[in-house]
Amino acid sequence: MATIHTDLEKEHLAHHEHVHHDDDHHESFVQKYIFSQDHKVISRQFLITAIIMALIGMTMSIIFRIQLAWPGEKFAFINAILGDKWAKDGILDPNMYLALVTIHGTIMVFFVLTGGLSGTFSNLLIPYQIGARDMASGFLNMLSYWFFFTSSVIMIGSCFINDGPASAGWTVYPPLSALPEGIPGSKLGMTLWLISMALFIVSSLLGSLNYIVTVVNLRAKGMKMTRLPLTVWSFLITAIIGVLSFPVLVSCVVLLIMDRSFGTSFYLSDIYIGGRPLDNMGGSPILFEHLFWFLGHPEVYIVIMPAFGITSEIISTNARKPIFGYRAMIGSLLAIGFLSCIVWAHHMFVTGMSPFLGSVFVFTTLLIAIPSAVKAFNYITTLWKGNIQFTPAMLFSIGLVSSFITGGVTGIILADSTLDITVHDTYFVVAHFHVVMGLSAIFGMFAGVYHWFPKMFLRMMNKKLGYLHFWLTFMCSYGVFLPMHFVGLAGVPRRYYTNSNFPIFDSIVDINIVITICAIVGGLAQLIFVFNFFYSIFRGEKAPQNPWNSNTLEWTTPMANIHGNWPGELPTVHRWSYDYSKPGAERDFIPQTVPLQEGEQDGGEH
Amino acid sequence: MKLLIILAIILLVIAAHQLLRVIELSRSLRKEVEWKPNDQDNNFMGKTMIVFLVLFFIFFFWQIAHWGARTLPPAASEHGVLIDQLWDANMLLITVVFLVTNTLLFYFAYKYRGKSTNKATYFPHSNKLEMIWTVVPAFALAFIIIFGLKYWNQITAPAEDKDKIVVELYAKQFDWTARYAGKDGKLGETDYRQISGTNAVGIDSTDANGHDDILVRNEFHIPVNTEIEFRMRSRDVIHSAYMPHFRAQMNCVPGMVTFFKFKAIKTTEEMRKDPFVVNLMSITNKIREKEGKEAVEFDYLLLCNKICGASHYNMQMNIIVDTPEAYRAWMIKQRIAAKTMAAK
Fold first, then answer.
1. Given an 8 Å threshold on Cβ–Cβ distance, is A362 in contact with B46?
2. pTM of the predicted model as reported, rounded to 2 decimal places
3. In chain A, what residues touch B311 (CB-CB under 8 Å)?
4. I want to staple B244 with a disulfide (CB 3.0 to 4.6 A). Which of A158, A215, A436, A491 is the partner?
């Protein structure tokens, strides 16, 4: 085994040094910045695309939040954005409301938190932290980004067509998504949605396969699996889940395309719509739900696990302590990864699925709480007796732990099929998944950007703006989503254009106003980040070699973004990445490249 | 006007640019880095953590105090009472976990805020601690799973009472129809190809059981303390029959029939006198008064809870829970109405 490994490394080294020599002279602008095969450039491409998508998704949410808080009132700016067709006199159209909800969900889940988070940080950190010159296949990596880009363009483009974009909810349950008579968004908009998602899946698979192969084959000498930073572990497991579950979404999407365009009946049966009975017989929408959630549930872990990895690294570095329970952290990632694939039907307790099947999924779903609890407690223990450096990245990491707990505990309620009956598809669910998945993952992403900005752009972001951004974001997030639980407990269903058609829901009118105001303030706070980000790219302070006194390998590469990462030989790894404040050491960190002293134990070994 | 706005924006950008230059210059004079947290920052952020924790919990309890009364009233069905009990137990448990873990998190962040003279303690792992927080949650979850599944099995078991009443809830874009059996006590078979203006729910004309079926819209009645078996169907897309006050919900899926059963324990009149409901309605009516809307009385509701199209938000039907006598009287009236309709 060991010899095979070295051979691969040698081959890799030789190959890359060759490439390295001619690349410096021949790369044109297009090769270097547009159709680049360099993981660092691709990572930045993913990040900037994701930031733009996130801003679009966020603006959509603010528009429909305004509609929910002040239904029927006129807002000139909504008319200015959406035009007369979708917001006559500044009042949002019900179909457009559903379209915004749908596209907001799709963009945030897939384009920001899957493409953006994994795409940015797996690309940036896997080669850097395992000590590789680049991804296993730079070409596939480039393709992955351009598929992602194309699918983003199609998704955004679908918002500008005559009938409006897909509007059957981000879960696109048929028959609503299959029947153009059901809702205007199920005409061309839905077709574009499906094409965009198919391309997205291609991008995701190309990326994931690349990540797996790279982590397995291209680790530097001495980088055993038990010495890998938790970031890389989390990216690896995320990629594996992605490879296992995204193909099922392909089949799900293809069958829906068949039903929509070629007259099959996979999901359709006994339907009378538009004044006539349809010919379709024998299909079942429940089949779609199974196929969709077979990806859909692992998907939320695809979203959250990279955020876990990023946070583990940042909390350990900035608490100046080893991450508590390194092996337990790996174990819990593996457990969560495995369990995430066998819990999908907890989204379907009240769909008419067999109640017995429901009980099985109650059991598996609640099991996930155990590894999740281990993670939360391990994070908290890592802070204990630390020497905490409050960088903006650290603040967002602590924010992640808080929101992960707060949103996680309500998951225990929802996973219990008995309790789910009451709050299924209400705002309680919306609040739950936004806190546990939306907030935690986006906090992880922010943390990652603040922490690895110097590696990406060779400059530093401003800390004070970072602090302001964190506190506004953090407080507004809870200001939005804690009250939302109460809206759900009042029995308000999600995806309602207005709640004013039911007298009983008048009691939550002012809760909705609180939520919307927090959402607007929180949305504006993101402009601080956008400014800090773009300003720092050009005019931030020059980054030193190792700004956070970190142990991992990326900080041993020169601050220059050179092709092949290390100018000379690849580094050799001698220890795990969490030797912070080790007794007997001179400084409070020992980089992974420093050999073990005589009699010294490697932290990852036990 | 537009030119003016553009001009203003350009001026703003220039002003911001100049301001940034000034800041940059002063920074380079002070020779201080603007990215690395110093002891002062750590101290300030650490203390802010505690302030946040306090505000966070105040906000949390304030919401319970102020908005707790706006949540759903106590369950009005037999199994709903069980759900509420289980809900309260689970909610208590997770609230404790939420409070304790958040306290630890923010307190540690405050207590161990960095100082250049301090050094962290090297504490990479402890099998004992990790064992504790694997095993304790496991036991808590065992409790949750066992009780949850026990109730779940009861709730989803088939309706078996001899005097049960079968009600079909038929969903379409964007309204509900309730169907009751006629004198024969049997609902007729259905066939979606026979749906027409006069046969709204597609009763199969070849099945004699269906000839006296009764269709009801806008509101439907059920008797108190009687098991009701709901059969849900849909004409077009997936809908969901959500009756929050009874803790009842089941999707209506085209191509299949789904079931849910419950026994109401309070008539509409009784529910209107429930102290929780009285308080809730006074809150609601106060808000309505401010908006210039007339006061309303409490009613049980059937809502659609699965996105079904543009008017999804307005797909509702009132449910009236009667005493058995009132229900029988209502039913007779419906039968007579159905007969006269048929005679026409």
1. no
2. 0.94
3. 94
4. A491
Closest CA to A103 of A18, A171, A179, A24: A171
Token pair belonging to A536: 């720092």
Model confidence over A407-465: pLDDT tens digits? 999 999 999 999 999 999 999 999 999 999 999 999 999 999 999 999 999 999 999 99
Which residues in chain A have their CB less than 8 angstroms from residue B189's CB?
none
Interface contact flag, B305 A325, Cβ < 8 Å: no
> Residue A475: what pLDDT?
96
ipTM of the shown complex: 0.94
Residues 361-400 of A with CB under 8 A from B: 362-363, 366-367, 369-370, 373-374, 376-381, 383-391, 395, 398
> Which residue from A minimizes the CA distance to B85?
A419
A38-567 homologous superfamily: Cytochrome c oxidase-like, subunit I domain (1.20.210.10)
3-class SS letters over B231-253: EEEECCCCEEEEEHHHCEEEEEC
Enumerate the domain spans of chain B: 37-114+128-157, 165-343
Exposure string over A471-487, b if 16+ CB within 10 A, otherwise e: bbbbbbbbbbbbbbbbb
Chain B CB contacts of A174 below 8 Å: 237
**pLDDT at res. A603:** 81
Distance CA A340, CA A333 (A): 10
Cis ω for the linkage preceding A175 (within 30 of 0): yes
Residue-range domain boundaries for chain A = 38-567
The pLDDT, as a whole number, for residue A529 is: 96
Q: Do residues B201 and B232 make contact, with C-beta atoms less than 8 angstroms apart?
A: no
- pLDDT the model gives residue A20: 47
The answer to whether the Cβ–Cβ distance between A504 and B113 falls below 8 Å is no
**Rounded Cα gap, residues A210 and B181, in angstroms:** 62
What distances in angstroms separate CA A160 from CA A60, A67, A112, A164, one per listed residue? 14, 21, 20, 7
Contact residues, chain A, for B133 at CB < 8 Å? 373-374, 377
Per the DSSP assignment, residues forming a β-bridge with B242 are B249, B303
Interface contact B254-A175, CB threshold 8 A: yes
Residue B114 tokens, joined: 């960095």
Does position B183 have pLDDT exceeding 90, yes or no? no
Search chain A and give the residue with CA nearest B150. A418
Task: Report yes or no: A472 at the B interface, CB cutoff 8 Å.
Answer: no
Which residue numbers in chain A have pLDDT < 50?
1-11, 18-23
CATH class of B165-343: mainly beta
Q: Which of A492, A472, A480 is nearest to A516 (CA)?
A: A480
Distance between B338 CA and the closest CA of chain A, angstroms: 24
